[in-house]
């Protein structure tokens, strides 16, 4: 027996004084309505209605039950209405999960723009370089750099990640610049320590048609990409930086790209989410907004002509 449905029929029948009218209101047959109420009475072990051919009235037990369940049904009805409205309004809570590495450089400006456009959305943005899925993070939308996430989510590629070796003009003026990968051994280099493993990430290079990995001795290592970028900008060392961190500085002539013939473009930045049909409007609107702002946005990667230059 569906107790909530049976109680709803009982409450409506008590209000209109007729099981037949209650059945019409509920969109079911009179027989189904009568059966539901009888099953409820059987389950409770009491009669809820006095029944005659012309009249339906509450017993004392029925009156007590009505007084007890009406507030709860009103609350349930209000909650259902709220859920329906949430599907059609750009309002309510929105949880976003993203790596710290992408936060300030790529995502945050667009997130702030969205927040200004839709002030009724309560954004909860969590930056964490340890990758977790949407379920464990209790997130509506996630971002990820690397390979597309799996596990029942939809992933949309936003941007390529180019790994660009670069140095500041001040570093090059003092130490010169390498013309081959092997010459990096004679230079000061930065390193990035991955949050999920605690290990220093190797540098990677395209040699011919093959990607090779090199463990570069780091004179300065950090587990924060922005901190590593700052070290390269300060002229302390050469770094291999993601394009999303480096491109604005390269175009602003604060950094110089090196060894571009060996640059790799193996990974990408993705937005991922559950099936759109399951999402309220605020989530769908955020997904569309971020895709519009970021997908293939040339502000975050170098074009072929720039690499040749």
Automatic annotation (TrEMBL):
<keyword id="KW-0238">DNA-binding</keyword>
<dbReference type="InterPro" id="IPR000847">
    <property type="entry name" value="LysR_HTH_N"/>
</dbReference>
<dbReference type="InterPro" id="IPR058163">
    <property type="entry name" value="LysR-type_TF_proteobact-type"/>
</dbReference>
<dbReference type="InterPro" id="IPR036390">
    <property type="entry name" value="WH_DNA-bd_sf"/>
</dbReference>
<dbReference type="InterPro" id="IPR036388">
    <property type="entry name" value="WH-like_DNA-bd_sf"/>
</dbReference>
<keyword id="KW-0805">Transcription regulation</keyword>
<dbReference type="Pfam" id="PF03466">
    <property type="entry name" value="LysR_substrate"/>
</dbReference>
<feature type="domain" description="HTH lysR-type">
    <location>
        <begin position="1"/>
        <end position="59"/>
    </location>
</feature>
<keyword id="KW-0804">Transcription</keyword>
<dbReference type="Pfam" id="PF00126">
    <property type="entry name" value="HTH_1"/>
</dbReference>
<dbReference type="InterPro" id="IPR005119">
    <property type="entry name" value="LysR_subst-bd"/>
</dbReference>
<comment type="similarity">
    <text>Belongs to the LysR transcriptional regulatory family.</text>
</comment>
<protein>
    <submittedName>
        <fullName>DNA-binding transcriptional regulator, LysR family</fullName>
    </submittedName>
</protein>
<dbReference type="GO" id="GO:0003677">
    <property type="term" value="F:DNA binding"/>
</dbReference>
<dbReference type="GO" id="GO:0003700">
    <property type="term" value="F:DNA-binding transcription factor activity"/>
</dbReference>
């Amino acid at each position: 027996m569906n107790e909530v449905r049976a109680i709803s029929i009982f409450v409506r029948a008590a209000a209109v004084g007729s099981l037949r009218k209650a059945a019409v209101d509920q969109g079911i047959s009179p027989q189904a309505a009568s059966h539901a109420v009888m099953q409820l009475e059987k389950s409770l072990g009491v009669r809820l209605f006095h029944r005659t051919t012309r009249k339906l009235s509450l017993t004392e037990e029925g009156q007590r039950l009505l007084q007890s369940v009406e507030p709860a049904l009103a609350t349930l009805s209000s909650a259902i209405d709220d859920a329906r409205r949430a599907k059609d309004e750009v309002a309510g809570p929105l949880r976003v999960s993203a790596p710290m590495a992408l936060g300030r450089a790529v995502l945050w400006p667009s997130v702030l723009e969205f927040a200004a456009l839709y002030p009724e959305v309560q954004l909860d943005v969590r930056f964490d370089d340890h990758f977790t899925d949407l379920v464990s993070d209790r997130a509506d939308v996630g971002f990820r750099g690397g390979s597309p996430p799996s596990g029942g989510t939809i992933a949309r590629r936003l941007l390529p990640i180019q790994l660009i070796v670069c140095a500041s003009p001040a570093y090059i003026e003092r130490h010169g610049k390498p013309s081959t990968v092997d010459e990096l051994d004679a230079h000061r280099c930065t390193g990035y320590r991955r949050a999920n493993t605690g290990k220093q990430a190797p540098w990677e290079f395209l040699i011919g048609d093959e990607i090779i990995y090199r463990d570069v001795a780091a004179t300065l290592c950090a587990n924060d990409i922005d901190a590593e970028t700052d070290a390269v900008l300060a002229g302390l060392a050469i770094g291999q930086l993601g394009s999303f961190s480096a491109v604005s500085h390269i175009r602003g002539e604060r950094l110089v790209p090196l060894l571009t013939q060996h640059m790799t473009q193996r990974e990408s930045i993705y937005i991922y989410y559950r099936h759109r049909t399951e999402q309220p409007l605020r989530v769908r609107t955020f997904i569309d907004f971020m895709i519009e702002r970021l997908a293939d946005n040339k502000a975050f990667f170098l074009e072929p002509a720039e690499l040749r230059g």
